[in-house]
Amino acid sequence: MTETNGRLPLSGVRIVDFAVLAAGPAAAKMLADYGAEVICVESERSIATAGGSRQNGPPGKSPINTAWFHNKFNPGKLSVTIDLSTPQGKDVVKRLVAVSDVFIANRTLHVLQNLGLAYETLREVRPDLIYLAMPTMGEGGPRTFYGGYSWGIQAMAGLNMISGFPDRPPASPTPYSHPDVSCNPLQAAVAILAALRYRRRTGKGQRIELSQYESTICWTGPAVLQYTANGRPLPQPGNRHDAAAPHDVYRCQGDDVWCAVSVFTDDQWARMCGVIERPDLADHPDYATLAGRKAHEENLRAIIEPWTAERPPEEVAQSLQEAGVPSSPVNNFEQLLKRDPQLRERQVWREVEHPELGTALVEDWGFRLSEAPPAPARRAPLLGEHNDYVFQEVIGMDEDEVNTYLVEGVFR
Amino acid sequence: MNGSQPQTSGGALEGLHVLDLAGPMGVYCGKLLADLGADVIRVEPPDGGPVRRIGPFFEDTPGVERSLFHWHFNANKRGITLDLEKSGGAALFKRLAAKSDVVIETFKPGWLGGLRLSYGDLAAEQAGIVVASITPFGQTGPYSHYEGEELIGQAAGGLLWMCGWPDRPPVMMGGGPALHQASTEAAAGVLIALEMREHTGTGQHLDVSVQACMPLTLMTSMPQYYTLGELRKPRVGDFHASALNGLFKCSDGYGDFRFGGRLGQWEGVVAWMDSARMAEDLGEERFKDPAYRREADVYHHIDEVFQRFIVRFTREEAVDAAQRLGMWSGAVHTVEDMLSDPQLAARNFFAEVEHDNLGRSFTYPGPPFMMSETPIHRPRRAPLLGEHNADIYESELGLSKGEIESLRTSGVI
């Protein structure tokens, strides 16, 4: 491993995280995990009125420090409390931005302007600032005023119409607001990293605007082209794939337990027939070719499930994979966290001590760098936990000034 | 206009040189880097490889230049052919890599090493190289040699179990969420590795597991399961587990409506319905209590009344009005709907891409974000197979015409 003196790839980059819930905070978390100093600017007042990331946690506990969103998307960050409804608070945030590299917000333009946090304002105090705005729709156009949970965004971006069963209404493909935990934070992180590289080469910062609607459409490219080039929409596919059969989930031993199998080649099918104890079907004229299996696709469940239903999904997947047939258990949370040996080997989840939760679960990203392991697992910050450090050491306020603002109620 | 020449200036990643060997699960990584201005060269086997064999196809006819999957994901890249397994192929790739910053690949772990093209082999020639390896389960561990693509990635990473309807088996999400998740994390990882190279001068090996990219998409379910030990109910179909949350039918399709619950919002929604005299009994005092509205028979009733009301409007009318009341909603669009969406039109989102070889242009998605100083490149059509062989092998690598001819006759390029 290269000698880096403990230096992480983004050491020295300071980020003001004025984002809430998932899409903005997740982008900032990736940068924190690789060494950036990420400071969440929060306030008791906005939590009381809007909740944000610090509402809804385990029953019987105050959600302020135990909330699910906060603990999933803010580990490794710092927290300061600044009341932005006060003129002193607005001034303090500007002083923080003046010594920072990146500002991230997923609030509406209107809110940011009212708080004095528009790009034009912050650029005055930090000319090479990299500023990320993540509006629902983006500036310009008749629907700029839309607010967004990602359920509405993904519906507008067409994801509902290319997911699920053709005989069911086009519901959200997942129970979650998917773009908040996929295209929007990940593409935001890429944009910030690209802007950091450009700034290093030219000295110039810039404003990034990620329209969550447009960013989501960008993850549906072939569906857009199917319509614009061929004049037809892609169908709702269920679990089917034009170039594979079987390509579905099959019931395994237990209640609501499944295994996914995808067979793209005739050779994989022949090997699968051996595994599921149906060697008679390897050369069968109805099933030996992809065309045959597509023509008889509705029969495949009855052929495959008698074998899978008697076995746990891990055994099904392992037997198929060892024969070179792509397969996986349809993992639920228990399987992911406690049973999957591959995820355990990669240490996707680590436990950290937490003063109010006892221990908390911290989740890693899907990539590993050979020379830069992620920072040691750190919990999410308690509300205002880093006020002293940020006000005195980062911004450079003296003790008298800090005390004055404390008395005036600015740091709440 | 030559539709194949990428723009060469102005992007945030201008000057970055990328070799893209990726198959389907990694092909969006290079596209993002190319959109940001990197010079991304597709290195494809002479027969075109797997990405050009993925549908849908132009006019439903397969062919190496007709895959819409290839058109989209390889837009803004240049393309050369190179058979890594033929004698001289690996050596030629090493010469290309020596002049590059990044290599993106999706082969089975160890396959490139067998050709003496592992990260270590490439780094020996070019210490700054960053190699991004995107595989279903990662480079090491008990499943590292297992196979998988989109469906397997969604299953192994936990997303699939959550998706669908309570009375049916889990159903995959369309659009390729696993391929995009892995490819985009890979792009971020590449840029993080390049930041580190600024300090250390050396590159590194990036190991992306499609499976391990997926738990992010489970929102807060994993911490909740860890702390409470309860499995969240999977597969909620069209929602409707609380008042005004889920899919409702409008006169011309569906909308996804989400009642946010902010102060005064209930009264606003009831007043809206009442303006058409369709609030029925919802104006009664008892419905103002959020706890009352959480009772199952109560929220089912509210949803029925709202459904009778909302079906009189088009999707766009209903969603515009709901948004004005702070209900964060969205119309369920087809691609056709998006192409005529005045919001996207006002922002000039979609891009017309000239396919000079076909004598016409096609509409593509525009950029994923905008940057004020460094424009995101509008897509240029994907390279034809081997289109830039002469440019790259001859002009940039300095091979002679004779050498190129001999590589061509021996099937290397």
Write a brief caption for the model.
By secondary structure, chain A is an alpha/beta fold. Chain A is 39% helix and 13% strand.
What does this 3D model show about the protein?
The complex is a heterodimer of chains A (412) and B (413). Chain A is an alpha/beta fold and 412 residues long. Chain A folds into 2 domains: 14-219 and 347-407, 3-Layer(aba) Sandwich (Rossmann fold), CATH 3.40.50.10540; 247-342, formyl-coa transferase, domain 3. Chain A has 19 helices and 12 strands. Chain A has helices at 23-33, 44-50, 63-66, 68-73, 87-98, 109-114, 119-125, 150-156, 183-202, 212-217, 221-230, 266-275, 290-295, 300-308, 313-322, 333-339, 341-346, 387-394, 399-407; strands spanning 14-18, 37-42, 78-81, 102-105, 130-133, 206-209, 247-251, 258-262, 327-329, 349-354, 358-363, 367-369. A 6-stranded parallel β-sheet of chain A has the order 3-2-1-4-5-6, sandwiched between helices. Chain A has a 3-stranded antiparallel β-sheet with strand order 7-8-9, covered by helices on one side. Chain A has a two-stranded antiparallel sheet with strand order 10-11. In chain A, α1 crosses α9. The longest helix of chain B is centred in the middle third of the chain and has 24 residues, at 177-200. Mean pLDDT of chain B is 95; it is low at 1-8. Chain B has 2 domains: 17-217 and 348-409, Rossmann fold (3-Layer(aba) Sandwich), CATH 3.40.50; 245-326, no CATH class. With 413 residues, chain B is an alpha/beta fold. In chain B, 36% of the residues lie in helices and 13% in strands. Chain B starts with 16 loop residues before the first strand and ends with a helix. Chain B has a 6-stranded parallel β-sheet with strand order 3-2-1-4-5-6. Chain B has a 3-stranded antiparallel β-sheet with strand order 7-8-9, with helices on one face. Classes of the chains: A alpha/beta (412), B alpha/beta (413).
